[in-house]
Amino acid sequence: MRRGPSLFNVTAVALGLAFLYLPIAVLVIYSFNASRLVTIWGGWSLHWYRALMQDTAMVQAAWQSLRIAALSATAATVLGTLSAVALTRYGAFRGRLLFSGMVYAPLVMPEVITGLSLLLLFVALGIDRGFWTVAAAHTTLTMCFVTVIVHSRLVGFDRGLEEAAMDLGCPPLRTFLTITLPLIAPAIAAGWMLAFALSLDDLVIASFTTGPGATTLPIRIYSEVRLGVKPEVNAICTIMIAIVAFGTIVSSLLAKRGAVRREREAALGAAV
Amino acid sequence: MAGGAADKPVLVRFDGVVKRFGVVTAVDRVTLDIAQGEFFALLGPSGCGKTTLLRMLAGFETPSEGEILISGHEISAVPPHKRPVNMMFQSYALFPHLTVEGNIGFGLRQEKVGRAEIAVRVEDMLALVRLKGYGKRRIDQLSGGQRQRVALARALIKKPRVLLLDEPLAALDKKLRAETQFELMELQRKLGTTFVIVTHDQEEAMIVADRIAVMDQGRLAQVGKPSEIYERPNSRWIADFIGEVSLIEGTVSQTDTIATALGPLLIEESAAKAGDKVCLALRPEKIRLSEQRPAGLEINALAGTVHEIGYRGDISLYKVRLADRSLMKVALANIGGPPPFAVNDVVWLSWAPTAGVVLTR
Ligand SMILES: Nc1ncnc2c1ncn2[C@@H]1O[C@H](COP(=O)(O)OP(=O)(O)OP(=O)(O)O)[C@@H](O)[C@H]1O
Ligand SMILES: [Mg+2]
């Protein structure tokens, strides 16, 4: 067998990465463009970031998005963790298949359908659309992702630890809080980060469920771009990319750290 | 049922306990008394239900039938965290996010014992299991033997009425295991706590325990002192399971003789009646080997050829082929000098009538 990548491998990887990241790179670079015209390079500048700060509508939309993301990610993390616990801990309870199917359905459901059905629901119930409806919609969207992440951690969790705690006089709920929760915390944190990032970049569901005064950042950007691309949009997109990239990296590091520690424990367990 | 528990008060009583997992019957009608202060071993092959029996006592499984009593009280309604028993888990189940001190003190913290007292008692425990100075370490910074002792200290700190140990030494190497066995016995004498140990190592059970219950497919096969189980097994299965044994099939012809394929053999008078099909069990160390037929009529003697010699250091195990092609095991202590017999030598086996055990089951 040949060692090292062949020319073909290198080219394939380079083309693949270019396909994925070239547009983003162009966007990031043009956000530092001094020129007013989006397609013509006029030298480096932070002009559009300064202009962005003046654009109150845009800043407000960003703030709105961050608040919605934080709230819905938190709610989704609590609910998602609870459903992961139910799925792993209560064995083959009645309706388990139905429950897991319902929890995981939003993973594959087209967003347009989720958005539309939520819209119909809110209208039917006569709920004013705005901040809270978007947050609720994002919670339903992201909860299943949290469930997937936390569930995978709980499956590998040694129940013996919980039994040991109870054997030593710790009641079940306290056992969950003092033993289980700290040990699955990395997965929960990773789930929160992912939910946050998903909420932040959702356009479809938000545009179905939002109302006046609760414009999220993606909606704002989309409507601006329809009137012509302004360089400020490049700037705000760059900031969002930075936030999402940061969240993704931290969440994958957290998940990886948990996995590494589990492996180390397993290795030590096997060595003794 | 055999056993010497009559002199001490009964602490734990299993009364007709059955545990089924779906179609599998893991524990089948177990009735058993464990006395106060006893070192009791549950011994049996893999999958015979030892762990299940222990887990029912700890409260992690509920019996399908029957009752479990501690000091005369039925405990099926008591949840695990309120039972006066503590368990040392086979995998140790130490909390990876706590230090050694955090692990050992965990049980006391659940009882709202004061910080100062916890610190003192944790130190005592560390001293007891010879881990002084290790309190601040993380669990993944300990060796296997050290973890085992942390697990032991954690289970002992609440001074349980019964300490349950599920194969506590399985993960240790042979030498450390032997040392730890003696430490456990010493600890048990010192504390006077009732220990119930699960093991599938028969040697370990015989060394540490006052009494042993041998289990087979969920049932109790025999309960008794180690010497009773070794010297007076009550069935072929037990004789074969505990230690080395040679079995000779035969039929009782007179009260003190059985007819076998190897000719008549003298036995101790037993309960078996003439005509009963029985089995004579002989331990290898109770048989003598000699070049000539030994003198005397009140002795059993058979000729054979040495088939194989297994050297074990302290003893050598000879397999001797007899007239009917069967193999008998004979153990000789290695007392120095050249080996007395070689493969293919013709030898005589002899044993006293009292050396064998007549088994009817
Ligand atoms: N939770 C369970 N569900 C179904 N079957 C089980 C369960 N726990 C144990 N069993 C079955 O019950 C039987 C006894 O198991 P148990 O763990 O008590 O065996 P053991 O004597 O401790 O064996 P080992 O020496 O291998 O630990 C086995 O056949 C096992 O497969
Ligand atoms: Mg077991």
The total tally of domains of chain A equals 1
* Structural class estimated from helices and strands of chain A: mainly alpha
Query: What is the name of the CATH topology of chain A?
Result: MetI-like fold
Unreliable stretches of chain A (pLDDT < 50, length at least 5) are none
CATH class of the largest domain in chain B: Alpha Beta
Shape of chain A: globular
Number of strands of chain B: 20
The CATH H-level superfamily of chain A is: MetI-like
Q: Could you estimate the helical fraction of the residues of chain B in percent?
A: 10-25%
Low-confidence stretches of chain B: 1-5
Give the class-level CATH name of chain A: Mainly Alpha
CA-atom Rg of chain B in angstroms: 25 Å
- In CATH terms, the superfamily of the largest domain in chain B is P-loop containing nucleotide triphosphate hydrolases
User: What portion of residues of chain B belong to β-strands?
Assistant: 25-35%
Oligomer: heterodimer
| Structure annotation, total helices of chain A | 11
> What is the β-strand count of chain A?
0
Strand coverage percent of chain A: under 5%
